[in-house]
Amino acid sequence: MTSIESDSEVAARLEIEDTQRSEGWRLLREALMAQRRNLLLGALVGTLWASFKVAVPQMTKYAINDGIEKDGPLLRWALIIAALGVLTGVLSGMRRYIAFRESRWAETLFRERLFSHVLKLHVGYHDKAQTGQLMSRASSDLMQIQAFIVMIPITLSNVVQIFAVTAILFITDPILAVVALIPLPFVNLSARRFSHRIHPASVAVQAEQAQLANVVEESVSGVRVVKGFGAEQVQFDKLEKEADDILRESMKAARIRSSFIPAIDVLPALGLVGVLGVGGHRVLNGELTIGDLVAFNVYLTLLIWPLRNIGMIVALGQRAAAALVRINEVMSTKSEIVDPIEPKHLVAAGDQLVGAVKFDKVVFGYAAEYPVLRNFSIDIKAGESIAVVGATGSGKSTIARLLLRFYDTQSGHVFLDGIDVRKLNLRDLREQIGVVFEDTVLFNDTVRSNIAFAKPSADFITIERAAQLSGAHEFIQRLPLGYETVIGERGFSLSGGQRQRIAIARAIVADPRVLVLDDATSAVDPSKEGEIRDAMKTVMSGRTTIVIAHRPGTIALADRVILLDGGTVAAVGSHDELVATSARYREVLANMTATSDIESVAN
Description:
The chain has helices at 7-33, 36-68, 74-120, 123-128, 131-149, 151-172, 174-181, 184-221, 223-228, 232-284, 290-331, 396-403, 426-431, 447-451, 460-470, 473-477, 496-509, 526-540, 552-555, 575-581, 583-602; strands spanning 357-364, 373-380, 385-390, 411-416, 419-420, 433-436, 514-518, 544-548, 560-565, 568-573. It has 603 residues and is of the alpha/beta class. It has a domain at 20-205 and 251-331: ABC transporter transmembrane region fold (Up-down Bundle). Strands 6-7-8-3-9-10 form a 6-stranded mixed sheet, with helices on both faces. It has a 4-stranded antiparallel sheet with strand order 2-1-4-5, covered by helices on one side.
């Protein structure tokens, strides 16, 4: 059933569209004010260009009246016109260079600001944000802004040309000027109506482009899942739908342009017809020279492109304003996790053992009404290793995320070396915590660069030692270029176990106070698990370590084991003690072991 909007709904929608349009133009003005000096330089060059451009018809008039009708020095006028043409060409090149330089500078600045802001936003935002939408804002939306800014110096010079031509026409012959310029008010009216109608169409097109980008991003990043389920047609159908939506919205915008742009083109031509009719009679009556009539017609042709340009700049401006609204949706989002106003600082390590971690009566849920951790408390001494064991969804990984301040607790506190993590700078905090996540992410770079990700300045000896400790050195040496081998996007050219060993090496190079192994050996081949466990003993020695693990051999590395059940600590002790005394621990361990065996076979 097709819904029909009520008057109040239409009014509300129009008010929202007006607000969005106003906000877009405001942001655009702010962006342009930051570049006003160079844009004014471009406008100055454009003004000189317009001056020489406007002078050519005058010289043409003198050449006809003096050089042809009076048999004067025609060659002199021809050389003057040629010189003006050369100057016009040089200034046109300068005008366009400045325009493109400023537009590309603005695009780069916006892209850097947007990228920096996106990286600073809290993890909770990225949990909900669509990657394709963010990519669309950082690419196609920014291109719309660039396309508009590049037209500004050009349009300003065209405006100067319009005023100069209009003044000359009235000085030459006021009556003929009125005839020629009668259509101009209608051009302005058409441009205003065009502006109001094209904005919502531009917003709709850009929104659909973002949806298409999201489908493409999901399909490419999840290509193994798509192929694994033979779901290529499913994703193609999604893309086809979004492509059809873009086509539909683009055609709406095209129909709006096709109804207004011709009017902006035709109206000045009507003035030209009037000039030929009225001006021709005035020449025959001896009231106007042929040179004046020719110059008049040339001036009118000089008005057609600038007036046509008005429609173009309005359309580009509306697209840029729509793009800025979408970009501002991201830029105006405030991170919920921020640095404290007056941060505290962790003490230097020196000879002092550091890395004490404490969770004190922590309550947290990704949705406030569904807490994952309930009154969770744990005290980990500096240099102690703790294994956290629990059923799926019990909140094991949440502990690491709270320690890193990916999220803040709803109540309770998390301490690192006696300081509440909310009172530390985020960078300082996260530099002191090395994490190996269950979902290993590597970058399209060399093995060496991936291992040294946290410390790009690390020397090769440090990198190689980290690889040896994590059990990665042997297989790295077998790669085509060893440590200089580029491993491809997300490291999918490696096996799951190889990726995790590089991730462990990456955490070792960071040399953190606290090492968090979030199920870090889940994808490691059982035949290699013992080798990695032996290496991890060395890494964990004297370093505070939180091990979130499924396999009994890995759990047994820890000094203590904590059973997490229902968001609280259900039991504490060594692995052997809990096996002997806790039925719930034996049950959870049995379930995890079965799952781990299945995953090992799959890998």
